[in-house]
Amino acid sequence: MEYISTRGNYNKVCAAEAIRLGMVPEGGLFVPESVPALGLEEIISNKDLNYQEIAVWIFEKFLTDYTREEIEKSAAAAYSKENFPVDNVTPLVKLDDNTYILELWHGPTAAFKDLALQVMPYLLVIAAEKSEINDEIVILVATSGDTGKAALEGFKDVEGVKIIVFYPEDGVSHVQKDQMNTTGGSNTEVVSLKGNFDDCQNAVKEIFSDKDFKEKMKRNSYQFSSANSINWGRLLPQLVYYFSAYFQLLNSGAIEAGENVNISVPTGNFGNILSAYYASEMGLPVEKFICASNDNNVLTDFLNTGEYNINREFKKTISPSMDILISSNLERFLFEITGHDSDKINKWYNDLKQTGSFKIDKNTLNKIKEKFVGEFSFEYEAKAAVKSSYEKYNYLIDPHTAVGIDSLSKYRSKTDDYTTAVVDSTASPYKFSRAVLESLKNENITKDEYRIIEELNDLTGFEIHRAIAGLEEKETLHKRNCKKDEVKSELEDILEL
Ligand SMILES: *Cc1c(COP(=O)(O)O)cnc(C)c1O
């Protein structure tokens, strides 16, 4: 299995190389040359595998330059009971007869990103060994909150790797800030940036494609890689839980073998939903993908009109991990859906860079609409979904998951399509407890986030996630701060270039 660039501007590389490089050095993203198609029979025959075994089965299809032993070791270490102390790693919870919640937040940092970032360091270290380039790997991360901590936890104290995280100083919650800034490890750095998430992401992307800076790195025996979902090593692990979810439905008798399901994904960078799409391209029976957005509804508009337009106000919402205007992985999706037409991708992404928007052709849009639906939730609607899910089902959800649930119910009432649906629950409610408690009590709450966590726990009895419990007492270890245009000099300082 080889990997090609969405922009048609790079030679084919093996999986290890795609993961080591993170993104195409000339711009563009690596995608598998073709997606391995599995017959329904093969899929169903694996329904009794445990999570680690499903991971090995799927990884082997895409990481053909890794040995079975390398893959098995990585999956076993990442998806251990210690890292995910629940049955099935990503347990499926029934809300009602045709609505299921896929809990993706049982990992060490309480957000779904652990599913990828617990395993990716293993895949990357193996990739570096295979490449025989001995330069120290520097992972640059732009985060809207959750990726940062998940990446820090995954990479901390991994030999031969340094990790540097940039987050928007006013764009993450108190708890998210503390989670990142208290991370130990001799190879971790955290920098807050005066700007929003897109500023962080742009700064990191710019550095990745800055030839002079990379030369300088090379002279100092460093090489860059990425732990953002532009790295294939982030997307691949996410395919696994869609298979796991399907098998859990099947094994509980909720669906028949081969029956289609709908999947609703609270979406930001389009990584999670893209993984679901890849799983369906492999043969997993999916009817519709509901792309659920918050007030930053660029994707909703795009899926409805074919125009992607970021010339709009950036809004800060109670689901900050989805406060994104430029969804990086959409590029991969468009490359797939156009049958690998890199001319189109180049044109659209050039337009986006020049004018802040692009418009796709009718054919492509129609093709997308066969499978994808865009819905979004206003803040009050997400809050209402938190409240009603607690009152109706005694089930506590975070504001991102609430957007997924609300979007699903909008889709259902518009279409009457009540196909069995899986809603991704992307974070523990305790990670966003202010918004959750405000939703439950219908009032603004100004007290400190840690007191809110206690109150939420008193009120609902829901167990506080271990990533949050005890966090307040931890010592702050990272205090760096910089302006948008200082990212390069900050890096020079950290790496002593
Ligand atoms: C990252 C994140 C998302 C968005 O996922 P994408 O793969 O970027 O679309 C949604 N919810 C939470 C809690 C997240 O951390």
Question: Could you walk me through the main structural features you see in this protein, from its secondary elements to its overall organization?
Answer:
This protein has 497 residues and is of the alpha/beta class. It has a domain at 92-109 and 233-467: 3-Layer(aba) Sandwich (Rossmann fold). 45% of the residues lie in helices and 16% in strands. It contains 21 helices and 16 strands. It has helices at residues 15-21, 40-45, 51-62, 68-78, 114-117, 120-131, 146-155, 174-181, 197-208, 211-219, 232-251, 271-282, 298-305, 330-337, 342-355, 362-371, 379-393, 399-415, 433-441, 449-460, 487-495; strands at 2-5, 13-14, 30-32, 92-96, 99-103, 136-142, 161-168, 188-194, 222-226, 261-266, 286-293, 307-309, 357-359, 372-376, 421-425, 480-483. The strands form four sheets. The chain has a six-stranded mixed sheet, with helices on both faces. A five-stranded parallel sheet has the order 9-6-7-8-16, with helices on both faces. A three-stranded antiparallel sheet has the order 2-1-3. Helix 12 links the parallel strand 10 and strand 11. Helix 19 packs across helix 20 (449-460). The longest helix has 20 residues, at 232-251. The protein binds pyridoxal-5'-phosphate. Pyridoxal-5'-phosphate binds at residues 111, 113, 146, 229, 266-272, 321-322, 400, 426-427.
